[in-house]
Amino acid sequence: MRAIKDKTEVFETMPIRRAVGLQILPAIASQMIALIYNLADTYFVGLLNEPNQTAAITVVYSSFVMLTAVSNLFGVGGASALSRALGKKSPEDARNIASISIWGGILCSLIFSLLFLVFSRPVLVLCGATPEIYDIAFGYALWVVVIGGPGTILNNLLANLVRAEGSAAAASIGVSMGGILNILLDPFFVLPQFLHMGAVGAGIATALSNLAAAVFFLIWLAVKHKKTVVNLHPARLRHTARYLKVILSIGFPSAVQYALTVVAIAAQSSFVSRYSTEAVAALGIVKKLDQLPLYFSIGVSNGLLPLLAYNYSAGNQERRRGIFRLGCLISLGFSLCCLIIYELFAPNLSSLFIDDPVTIRYGADFLRRMVTAMPMMSVCYPMIIQFQAMGKFKESLVCSVIRKGVLDIPLLFLMNGFLGLYGCMWVQPIVDSISLITAGIFYRRLKKAENI
């Protein structure tokens, strides 16, 4: 493949299929690595056969997801604003946006880590930390959220900004490097053959790997400082008042969606816990399995965002529509493949995680219901990303909160009342269908109003 001499070629003149491939393939690869390393801590700690250690990681997971919400506040918002500035041929605006986004992310990460440290006990207890596992959970959270939180947030934030100017491969390398390092460090810190630090060791491995990824991006920016608009110059913070609203108006819906995801997952788990331990275990297994098409769609969407934002801002709506259609087809195609495989082999897939026949039966039944949401989800994510790329705050926010938070809990009460346990499994397909319909209505209105 010939070298790309000018990054604008990817955005403006390169054939759509090649441009989309160059942007989304690295983004998908980094998401797949992220998926594997999200499971790494649980896997290696699980090898110890100590339920308290595994439970401690589960308790902290919600707080770890909140780190992504904080990073998206400036990462997704900054990426969209940066790409739109480049589409308007305003590199100085892009540099200002990048600097404000990075320093805003750093400040928020420090505040979040400090607040968690102060309120760690009530937060962990609320998330399910019993007296038996609290000390282990706090030790894990101290490394993952407090010490490692800024590194995790900066890693994700910089990856979004670097990808936004067309350097998708560099973004993928940074994120993937952190994930691979985490997988390599986990056994060294966790297992009895080495340091035998259990869940706390897994936290140290995660913190170090995310810090290493953040350092990689900072070194990359230093080396490429003459060729990239992504920078950390504090002097550009004097323009904060001009750009902050633009950044946060797009980053806020994305952050809210991740934050509400935590609430939705907790609510569903609470309803299922009323039935049996096996049902709760089965739900956990299904949540792991449905991460594959979810992370794939997120990867596609992350890769599309810079292309969509740039061409929307540049006024090239025909190219933007072509990019969006191709991205949706790729995301939908993969989700349909997963749907077929999951429906056909649900018991086999559930048995990969556990040998208990009751849990496997629950897992198969849950999976066959919940995966029907995948096709809607696979199109809904690119739709929301397109609104973010276009700078549409209202549309992005409404679709995001519909997907997670606003409808989930009322529907859980309703479906649980009518259909019991299995009714809870139909909530996500219903929510994703409503969100997709809403997104379609919004997009049609925008096409008429703006002739896009």
From TrEMBL:
Task: Name the domain of life this protein comes from.
Answer: Bacteria
Q: Which GO terms describe its cellular component?
A: plasma membrane
The transmembrane residues are: 20-40, 60-85, 97-120, 140-159, 166-185, 197-223, 243-267, 292-310, 322-346, 425-443
Q: Which UniProt keywords apply?
A: Antibiotic resistance, Cell membrane, Membrane, Transmembrane, Transmembrane helix, Transport
Give a yes or no for keyword Membrane in this entry.
yes
Q: Which family does it belong to?
A: Belongs to the multi antimicrobial extrusion (MATE) (TC 2.A.66.1) family. MepA subfamily.
Q: What is this protein called?
A: Multidrug export protein MepA
